[in-house]
Design brief:
This protein has helices spanning 7-10, 16-30, 50-63, 79-82, 95-103, 126-140, 146-150, 155-161, 179-188, 200-217, 238-252, 267-276, 280-283, 291-325; strands at residues 38-41, 68-73, 111-114, 117-120, 169-174, 191-196, 224-233, 263-264. With 326 residues, it is an alpha/beta fold. Strands 3-4-2-5-1-6-7-8 form an eight-stranded mixed beta sheet, sandwiched between helices. The model has no long low-confidence stretch (mean pLDDT 87).
């Protein structure tokens, strides 16, 4: 017998609508009537290129005509720098997300950062969301049924369900090390893209994500590993890159590909991008860069564009494979 709590007295968000959304989603999965379009960019460690990848991938997909929603589930709000959201008047400190999760409002982007690229910025307002999630998780431990104990993880899934038909791709850029937000994103997502470096600390972060992936997958049978993108490698060090791939594939037990395209580390290009509020693809022909910097920026832009193409190819292959199986 489940314990019944009066949620209104605790001043927490009522999860009845979340339960309904999760059950509808399960029925769609059973009928094979839902496409995977929500990509979660995640790692358990910061400084591995997560926000840069999310912004560059979103911009690349929008540039080819896909309608993209980029949501940043991170109190730091790095996308504001990556895409120049403050200068565009689109940075809201995470208020739109907080309103959707805490007040039940529609998950409404603050605007278009680029043509076809709609944004939900992160920021300090998400701290209130995190506090709510901690409380919901603590209350959920009192319930007996496994579904009732896990349903708190579906607040973002319910919010996304109301708007997912409006977009071709939804990308969630998730804070490193924040378990409640990561579980929210993984429960609401369908494909997991993990950026990582080759150092032991980054790989440890990858294993943390794998554990949270398993937890979220109990509530979200749509969840699949899309792949791992390796950052900060020397483009000429092919032997080292091969060893990195072998190590990561061992960590993942062959469950997801390590993308062939790696992302090189060019500190000067990264600084220039953040300063300008643009992704490398937008600065590759910038007249404000000297010839050497322009060459580095062009190479980095090529890395991101090639990785975006590889991501789309893997998504298409997964869809075709599952279509044949169905």
């Amino acid at each position: 017998m489940s314990v019944r709590l009066d949620v209104s007295q605790l001043n927490l968000v009522d999860l009845d609508a979340v339960k309904g959304a999760l059950l509808r989603r399960l029925s769609l999965v059973q009928d094979n009537a839902i496409d995977r379009k929500v990509i979660v960019v995640i790692n358990g460690k910061g400084g591995v290129g997560k926000s840069s990848l999310a912004a560059a991938l979103a911009a690349a997909l929008a540039q080819i005509g896909l309608k993209v929603l980029l949501g940043e589930l991170d109190e730091q709000g790095n996308n504001a720098e990556d895409l120049g959201l403050s200068a565009l008047g689109l940075a809201d400190n995470g208020e739109a997300q907080a309103a959707a999760i805490l007040d039940g409002k529609l998950l409404t982007p603050t605007g278009e950062a680029r043509p076809n690229l709609h944004v939900l910025p992160g920021g300090l307002a998400l701290e209130e969301v995190v506090e709510e999630l901690y409380c919901q998780r603590r209350v959920a431990r009192r319930f007996e049924g496994p579904f009732d104990r896990q349903v708190w993880m579906g607040l973002y899934a319910a919010a996304i369900e109301r708007v997912r038909h409006l977009y071709d791709v939804i990308i969630l850029d998730v804070a490193p090390g924040n378990a409640p937000l990561q579980l929210q994103a993984l429960t609401g997502g369908e494909l997991v893209l993990i950026p990582t470096k080759s150092d032991p600390s980054s790989r440890k972060g990858l294993r943390t994500v794998a554990q949270r992936f398993a937890t979220a997958a109990e509530l979200n049978p749509l969840l699949r590993l899309l792949g791992v993108a390796v950052f900060a490698t020397n483009s000429s060090a092919t032997r080292i890159q091969s060893e990195i791939r072998e190590q990561l594939e061992g960590d993942l037990l062959g469950a997801a590909p390590v993308f062939e395209q790696t992302i090189r580390h060019v500190e000067s290009a990264a600084v220039a991008c953040r300063k300008a509020g643009k992704v490398p693809q937008e600065l590759r022909n910038s007249k404000d860069l000297d010839r050497a910097a322009q060459r580095s920026m062009s190479q980095l832009a090529g890395d991101y564009q090639s990785l975006a193409l590889e991501v789309m190819q893997v998504m298409r292959a997964m869809k075709d494979q599952e279509g044949r199986a169905a």
